[in-house]
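# step 3/5: fold
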Amino acid sequence: MSTYALISDIHGNIDALRAVAEDLEHGPPIDEIICLGDIIGYCPASNEVIDLLRSMEEGCRIRYNLGSHDGAALGAYQFVDMNNAADAEALRAAGLETEAAVAAEYFDAEKRRFVPVRAEARDAMKWTLEHLSDESLEFLRQRLQPVIQIAPGILSVHGSPRDPACEYVRDSGYAARCFESPAMASAWLCFVGHTHLPVVWRLRRADLVEMAGNRVCMKQPGLELADWVELNRTACRYIVNVGSVGQPRDHDRRACYGRFSTKEDVFAHVRVEYDVDAAAARVRAAGFSERLAERLYQGE
C-alpha cells in the first residue's frame, strides 16, 4: 500500500512548485511523487524548476511523464501559430496547405510534426528553447516516459491513454473513448493532466462491454468535481485529472496537485497558495505575453 503525490503542468512556474514542495514536505508522508509532464513552458523558470525537482528526488522517488511542451523541447514536433507568417510558410513547405491538413496530421500521433498552439505558447516555447541549459535538456531526455505503470491497474499519462502526450480529455465523449481504448484494458484508474482542470471521470464497470471485438461504453462517463473522492475499484473505472501546479485553469489561482492512497483508494485535490506576484513578475521580465502574466491571477 502506497501514498502518491501527483503533480502536473508546472510550466516553468518555480514559485508555484516551491509552494507545493513545501506543502509536501510538511504534509502527511508520501511514498512517491508522480510528475505528469509539462515541466516547462509558459513561465520562464524552467531550469530552476528542473533543479528543484532534482533536489526533491533526494527525499522521495519521482517518476516523470512526457508532456506536450516537453516533447516540443525535445524536438518530437514543433509548436506553430497558424496566424504567424513564418509558421504558415513552414507548414506549406512541409506539404500542409490547409488547416484541415495540419489538423489531420496533428491527430495522427505517428505522423505528428507540428502542434498548432496560440501565439503566446509558441513564443514562450521559442524563448524556453533558447534558454534551457544542456543539463535541463538532458534531464528531459533521460527521465520522461509517455506512460507510467504506477501500480497494478493504475497508469499515469500527460494527455490521455490513447495519445499520452497531446490528447486532451476535454469532455465525457473523450473520456468514453479513453475508457474504450486498448490502453485501458487492464487499468481501472488513469491519472492525466494537460487540460489543467481538476476533475474526475467515472464509468461503472457494468457500462463498459465487449461488442464485436471492441470495448464500448453503454453510457457516458460521469463527471465529479469534488476535491475529495473515494474511488471504488471493484465497481468503477476512473480517469482523474490532477490539476495544474503552475497554471491552473479552473478560476482558482492556487497551485493544485493530487494525493492518492492505494490503502483507502482515496484521491484528493490539494490547493496551495503561492506568490503569484513573483511568478507574474518573472513572466513580464522575460518579455512574455502579458496574457501569460494575467492568467496566473485569474486561474484561467
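# step 4/5: annotate
Residues 47 and 136 are 6 Å apart (CA to CA).
# step 5/5: archive (pending)
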